[in-house]
Amino acid sequence: MVFYYKARPEAGNYTIFMGLDKHENEDLIKYGFPEDIWFHVDKMSSAHVYVRLNKGQTIDDISEGLLEDCAQLVKANSIQGNKVNNIDVVYTLYPLV
Predict the structure, then answer these.
(1) Handedness of CA 86, 7, 59, 64 (dihedral sign)
(2) Contact, 27 vs 73, CB < 8 A?
(3) CB-based contacts of 88: which residues, under 8 Å, 6+ apart?
(4) Where are the domains of the chain?
(5) H-type alpha helices, the chain
(6) How far does CA 37 lie from the centroid of its chain?
(7) Which of 2, 21, 27, 11 lies closest to 70 in space, CA to CA?
(8) pLDDT tens per residue, range 18-56
């Protein structure tokens, strides 16, 4: 089951998608939209998190609050990442480049 979240109100009207295992992550990759931004904990396993931008927006339009929401979700859903203080989160445009 893919999870859907709404970003905090001050971050804007965005839907955040998250897969909890490799099967759900593959579905998210397979059915992604061009306006999706993908988040993942760098060099550790974690959930895949996507935020769907509004049409016409670019990666540069992501607010600090929205970045934080997505980064917190991938960290919290990483077996290794949620046990350490500092992690790196990578994010990129879909399709994964």
Answers:
(1) negative
(2) no
(3) 41, 42, 43
(4) 3-93
(5) 22-30, 64-76
(6) 7
(7) 11
(8) 987 788 888 888 888 888 999 999 999 888 899 999 889
